[in-house]
Amino acid sequence: MSTTITISFPWGRYHATPWGRHVNEAAIEFPPSPWRLLRALYSTWKCRAAELDEATVHALLERLAIPPTYGVPVFGEAHTRHYMPDIAHGSDKVIDAFAVFEHDAELSISWPFDLEREQMDALTTLVERLPYLGRAESICEARVGVARDTEVDRGVIAPMADEVVADEVLRLLVPNQPLDFASLTTRTSEVRSAKRLVPVGTTWQRYDSPRPMAANVAVKRKARANPTAVRWTFASNARPSVYSTVTMTDVLRRACMSAFGARNDAATSVGLSGKTGDGIPVRGHNHAHYLAFDVDGDRLIDTLVVWMPAGIEPAEVGALASLGKLTGHRHFADFRTGQLGLEAIGTVEDVAPELLGPSTVWESSTPFAPARFAPRKREWEVHLANEVAQELAWRGMPAPVATKALPGPWLDFGRHRPSKERLAQARRANGVRLHFEAPIRGPLVLGALAHFGLGLFVPKR
C-alpha cells in the first residue's frame, strides 16, 4: 500500500530555485524536494490549520521524512529577464526561471506505506489548504490521492542507492531522521550565518537520472473557451446611485465600443454593440449585457460587469481590459465620472459568482420592465407574471411557479437610455420575486433594457 498526494498548478508554472543555487543560474528545482514539501506542510499547519493536534502533525511529518517517489508530468523550462532597481539607484538583471506544463498536468508524490487514520485526516487537511509550493507565484491545488488522468505517461523518479554509479544525477534536499522540527523553520540567512551549506538535519538524496521528460520542449496548450465576463471596480469622488444603473451601463457600452474601434481600425464589434455591421439589432440574448450593481450594500454603484453568453473574442477582451476610466458624458444628469479597476476576466462563474445561484427563489436587484404594454383590463401583477414567463421561455428556462410584485421605490430607477428621455414616464417597472419548482442557475437578466442592467435578479437562499 502507499500514501500519495497529487499537486497541480492552475497557472501552468512552477517557480523554485534549488538549494545552494543562485537565482540567476536559472536552475529549477522540479520536482520539489522533500525538504521543501515538509516546510510547506509545516507552514500550512502553523498559518492555516492551527486546530490540528501538534502530536499528530509531528508524527505525520516524521513519517513523510522518508524520501518519496515522484510521478512527474512532461514539462518544459523557460525564463523571463527583469531589471530590478537596487539600493544604489541602479538596476540589476534578475532571471526568473520556471517549469511550464499543461494547466491540468498533475505531479504525484508517493510514500510506500499507509498512514494511521488521524495522520491521514491531518494530511488531507494540510494538503487541501496548501496555497502554493515553491515561490508564492506557484499557486497550486493539492489533494490526497492518485492522479486523475491515469493514462498520461509520467516519469517515475525514485531515490537512488548510494552504491549506484551514474554519470548524471538529480540531487534533492531531504531531512535526516529523526526529523529536526526546529530546522524546518530555519531561514536561509541563518544557515549562511552559521557558515553551513545546508540546514541542520538535512542531506542530499540522489534520484534517478536522466530525468524522463524533455527540457525546453514546447508545451502544447489545449484550446480554451473564450471568457464570458469582465468585471471592474468603479471608484469615484461621488459614486452614482443604483437608480442610475441604465445611464452608467449605457456609458460603459459606449466606452467599450470606442475602445474596440480605437484598437481595430474603427471596426464595430457585433458582440459589444448588439448590432450587425449594417446597424440591424441582432436577435437573441447572446451579445453583451452591461451590468452595474452594489456589492457593499450602500445603494451606490461600485461594480460594473460585461457578460456575453456567447463568449468574448480576444480582440474584444483586449479592448475591455484597456479601459481605465469612464468620462466624457457630464451632460447626463445622473452620470458620474470615475476610475475603472479591472478585477477579473474569465467565465461568469468565476467573475460574478454572486449572480449565479442555483436557487429556487430569485429577487429583483433592479426593476423588471416588461417589453410590452399591458392590455387593457389586465391586472398589473398578472401582466408581470406573463411577461416574466415569456422572457424566461425565450431563454430556454422554466417558468416560475409563483411571481410576486415587490413594494419599493422601483420607479426611481432610470428606465430609459440617456438619449431616449421621452420614454421615462411611459415604461413601467417593478421589483419581482420569482419562485421556481427546482433550483435554476443565473445570471438572470430579463425584460426591456436587460442588456443595460435593468431586470437583474439575484438568488436568495
Relevant terms:
9 helices, elongated, 20% helix, 5-stranded antiparallel β-sheet, 20 strands, 3 domains, alpha+beta, 461 residues
Helix and strand layout, with pairings?
Blueprint: E1 3-8, E2 13-14, H1 34-48, H2 54-64, E3 69-72, E4 76-85, E5 91-100, E6 106-111, H3 117-128, E7 141-144, E8 155-157, E9 170-175, H4 188-193, E10 202-207, E11 229-235, H5 245-263, H6 270-273, E12 289-293, E13 303-307, H7 314-321, E14 325-326, E15 338-346, H8 348-351, E16 359-364, H9 380-394, E17 402-406, E18 431-440, E19 444-445, E20 456-460
Antiparallel strand pairs: 1-6, 1-7, 2-5, 3-6, 3-8, 4-5, 9-10, 11-13, 11-15, 12-13, 14-15, 16-18, 16-20, 17-18, 19-20
Helix pairs in contact: 2-3, 5-7
Can you give a write-up of this model?
It is a single chain. The chain is α+β, with helices and mostly antiparallel strands. It folds into 3 domains: 3-207; 229-353; 359-460. Helix content is 20%, strand content 25%. The chain has helices at residues 34-48, 54-64, 117-128, 188-193, 245-263, 270-273, 314-321, 348-351, 380-394, and strands spanning 3-8, 13-14, 69-72, 76-85, 91-100, 106-111, 141-144, 155-157, 170-175, 202-207, 229-235, 289-293, 303-307, 325-326, 338-346, 359-364, 402-406, 431-440, 444-445, 456-460. A hairpin with a 5-residue loop joins β4 (76-85) and β5 (91-100). α2 (54-64) crosses α3 and α5 (245-263) packs across α7 (314-321). It is elongated.
